Amino acid sequence: MEIKFFDANIYLGTQMLGSYKPAVKASELLEKMDELGIEKALVYHMSQFEYSPEEGNKMLVETMEGSKRLFGCWTILPPQTEEIITEDFFGRMKKNRVFALNLFPVHHRFLLKGIVFGQFFKELIKRKIPLVLSMREGGSTWEMIYSLLNEFPELLCIISDLGIWGVDRYTFPLLEKYRNVYLESGVLSLHEGSFEMAIKKYGAERVIFGSGFPEKYPEAAMLHLLHSNISAADKMKVASGNLETIISGVKL
Amino acid sequence: MKKSLQLAKDFFKYGMVKDCPVYDMHGHMGSHYGIYFPSSSAEKMVNAMKQANVKKLVFSHHGCLMSNAGNQLSIREARKFPEYLKVYCSVNPNYPELAEKDLAAFDEANDVYAGIKMLADYHKRPITDAGYKKAWEFANKRKLPVLLHTWGKSVFDGPELVGEVAQKYPDAKILMGHSCHGEWEKAVGLANKFKNVYLELTAVLDERGPLEKFIEEAGSKKIFFGTDMPWFSYHNYIGAVLGAAQKEEDIRNIFYINAEKLLKSPGDA
Ligand SMILES: [Zn+2]
C-alpha cells in the first residue's frame, strides 16, 4: 500500500537572510517533490511574509506557473486597507488556483480580531476556506489564536510551524474545543510521542502532513509518519486524505 | 522516496536497519516544567529506542539537572535497562559539594556512568567557573566524554569558552551539545582545531543546512547523533540525517561508528 503525500507547508523563494537550497522556481520544487515522493503541495511564497503580501501574492501565482500539483496559499491583511481583500477577491483566488489563506499578524502589524476581519472571516467559514496560522516568529501568538477562535469557533484553521519546544499544553485545549482546528505535522512529528498522543486523543482527522521545506528536512516528517504508531488508514488520512478533503470542500 | 542510497531506502522501508544501529549521545528523562512529554519514562523511552534500533542512549535525568534530586535518579532508571541506558553524571556548579559527592561516588555506578553533563546556560555559570573545576579535572584524568549544552553567543557555554576548556583539558572528550547553536562556523572551527572537541546534533537537525556544513567542513568522524530524548523523536531525527548526508560512510559514522568507539574506549576516540 503506497502512501500519497500532500504537503501543507512549503514555500517558494528565498529568505532575506539566506536560504539553504530553496526552490525558487516551480520546476525546482516539483523536482524535489518527485525525489521525495510528495505528490502535491499547498505553497506560499516567502516574499508574502518578508517583503510584501501584495507583491508576494502575485509572485506566488507567477512562480506556480499553473502547475496542477501546486495549490496556492495567499497572505491576507486587514480588509479596511484594501491592499489584498478587494472586489472579487474569491473570484481571483479561484482563477489563480489559490485554495487557502495565511496571515502573519505580528510581522505585518495588525490584530487578529473580529473588529478587523469580522465579515471576512464569516465568509471564510461559509466557503470552508482554510486559514493557515503559522507559529513562526512574526506569525500568530497563542493568545491571538485563542481569542480568534473564541470569536469564530467554526473557522477552519491549520496551525503550522509549531514551536521546537513541545506545544501540547497549548494545542490540546484547542483540539478539544474547536472541531475545525487542525495541526500541521512537521514540527509536531519532532516531539517524541506528541503526534501519536494528539491522534489518540482527538483523531487522525485533525493532523495534516507538512514538511516545512525548504527550512526543514521533509525526510524527517515523512520517515516519522511512515513509522509512527498509528494505523495504516490513519497514516493515509494524515499524509494526504485530510488535506484533500479540505481543499475539495473549498467553495470559491 | 526515490533516494539513490540503498541504506536510506531501507530506513524508509523498514524504519530501522539492522546493521546500521543508532547511538543517541544526548538524552534526558522525566517530566519537565515547560513541556508535556508523553513518553518521558525509562520504559517508554526504551520502547521508542527499540522501534528505531537505537542501541544506547546516554542521558541525564531532568530531575538531576533542574532540581537537586542528584544523580541517583539517573542511575536508578538506567539500571532498569542496563543494555540500553547509560548515564552522564550531571554537575550543577551552584552546588559544588553535591557535585563533589557525586564524583567521589562515580565508581560505585561505573556500570552505568559514561561521562559528565554540564548545562551551563541553565545553571548560569560559565563552563570555566570554579564550580566546574573538579568535574573537568576528573573528566580530563579519566579521558571521559563531557556533554556540554553549548549555544551561539552564550556567555555561559558559547564557542569561545568551549575553546578555553578544550585547551585546558585536552584529554576530556568534549561533545558540544547543540553544536554552539547558530554559530555553526565557530563550532566547525572548534571541531577542526581541537582533537578532543566534537559536534553533536540535538536541535541542529530541525533546520536544513548545518549538518551538510559539518560533514563537508569537519567530516563525519567528528559528529555525534543526539536527540534530547524524550524531547525529539528518533524517526524524525533519523530522517533528517538521511536528508542531509549523501554518503553511506557519513551516515554510519554519525549513527553508530563514532559512538561505539567513544563508549568502548573514550581515550582512543
Ligand atoms: Zn539536552
Largest sheet of chain B: 8 strands, parallel
- CATH superfamily caption of chain B: Metal-dependent hydrolases
- Could you tell me how far the N terminus lies from the C terminus of chain A, measured between alpha carbons in angstroms? 34 Å
How many helices of chain B in DSSP terms? Answer: 12
Based on the coordinates given, report the CATH architecture of chain A.
Answer: Alpha-Beta Barrel
CATH class of chain A: Alpha Beta
Mean pLDDT of chain B: 96
CATH domain topology of chain B: TIM Barrel
Task: Name the helicity range of chain B.
Answer: 40-55%
Strand order of the largest sheet of chain A: 1-2-3-4-5-6-7-8
The gross shape of chain B turns out to be: globular
Overall geometric form of chain A: globular
Please name the CATH architecture of chain B.
Alpha-Beta Barrel
Query: What is the quaternary state of this protein?
Result: heterodimer
Order of helices and strands of chain A: EHEHHEHEHHEHEHEHHEHH
CATH class of chain B: Alpha Beta
Question: How many domains make up the coordinates of chain A?
Answer: 1
Give me the number of helical elements of chain A: 12
Please compute the radius of gyration of chain B using only Cα atoms.
17 Å
Describe the structure.
The complex is a heterodimer of chains A (252) and B (269). In chain A, 45% of the residues lie in helices and 17% in strands. Chain A has 252 residues and is of the alpha/beta class. In chain A, strand 6 (157-160), helix 8 and strand 7 (181-184) form a beta-alpha-beta unit. In chain A, 50% of the residues are buried. The mean pLDDT of chain A is 97. Chain B is α/β, with parallel strands linked by helices. Chain B has helices at 6-14, 42-51, 62-66, 72-80, 96-104, 120-123, 133-142, 159-168, 184-193, 210-217, 234-244, 248-264; strands at 22-27, 54-59, 85-91, 113-118, 145-151, 173-181, 197-200, 223-224. In chain B, strand 7, helix 10 (210-217) and strand 8 (223-224) form a beta-alpha-beta unit. The longest helix of chain B is centred in the last third of the chain and has 17 residues, at 248-264. Chain B is globular and about 55 Å long. Classes of the chains: A alpha/beta (252), B alpha/beta (269). The interface between A and B is large, with 37 and 39 residues. The site of zinc ion has 6 residues of chain B, from loops.
